[in-house]
Amino acid sequence: xxxxxxxxxxxxxxxxxxxxxxxxxxxxxxxxxxxxxxxxxxxxxxxxxxxxxxxxxxxxxxxxxxxxxxxxxxxxxxxxxxxxxxxxxxxxxxxxxxxxxxxxxxxxxxxxxxxxxxxxxxxxxxxxxxxxxxxxxxxxxxxxxxxxxxxxxxxxxxxxxxxxxxxxxxxxxxxxxxxxxxxxxxxxxxxxxxxxxxxxxxxxxxxxxxxxxxxxxxxxxxxxxxxxxxxxxxxxxxxxxxxxxxxxxxxxxxxxxxxxxxxxxxxxxxxxxxxxxxxxxxxxxxxxxxxxxxxxxxxxxxxxxxxxxxxxxxxxxxxxxxxxxxxxxxxxxxxxxxxxxxxxxxxxxxxxxxxxxxxxxxxxxxx
Length: 367
Known about the structure:
The protein has 367 residues and is an alpha/beta fold. 40% of the residues lie in helices and 15% in strands. It folds into two domains: 2-47 and 274-364, Aspartate Aminotransferase, domain 1, CATH 3.90.1150.10; 50-272, Type I PLP-dependent aspartate aminotransferase-like (Major domain) (Aspartate Aminotransferase, domain 2, 3-Layer(aba) Sandwich), CATH 3.40.640. It comes from Dissulfuribacter thermophilus.
């Protein structure tokens, strides 16, 4: 076995697996807590659209058939939503897979990919999987430092990932900053705007990929059905980009990469605007309530354009995380992201939000 493992590329052996949030089932097993709540993985606490659930149930009898490899009907709906052509759309097993496609197609040994530090951890892990070098640029005032990113661009640079809104701070890029950034960026560099939380943005003057990819083919943007649409368990997302870029990604995409139930669920979720609007409104109300409540308790929450909030507790976040587990509340300690005294809380239902705050008061002694 040792000789087999030694044949694995060093950059694969050195890769640390992505740390997922603790599942509810594990918490129940470990601590014997039945009434646990999970506010750690930025999921939709209201679940998916009832229309999506009904359509998925109706489709169960046909799961012995392969899915539509082209995703025709879902792409038709996305065409209508965004005003694009089907050739601009690439479907993925979560938007994570589109990230993988981009890195697989455009990066590799001897090339560089730039992302902020911290940012969504999958960027750096996928770069490592394909043997590239990830250049990490520290945030400036909890947001992407576009000037510093530009200073790191060279002839080896192939991709820049900008999660907008940013994970885990919830900040957004400003339009004038992004315009100046694109103008100064060399022609050989692709820019991916990861808009996983794009539906939740309330602030104005925010650049979205839909406004750029036609006039600048270097711009790709991603969306997911995991957050606002509540389909995390089905793993489906998509990217919109210039046809030439999409054609390249289709060459590295596995056949049938998006399963049939995911396609049906996503298609019907898009049909249910009422459910989406309820999710957004309840999330915004939850964010406002958390911000005010956490400030009143003496903590330092950040304003967020997502469905989560980063909170500086001023104390060891890992210790608070463990104590919260014993209260039956799963949050996320952000030490792995470089915030050792901060936690990330997903907005839940009003009852879940209240329980989270009560548990936090109990474990921190704040009143």
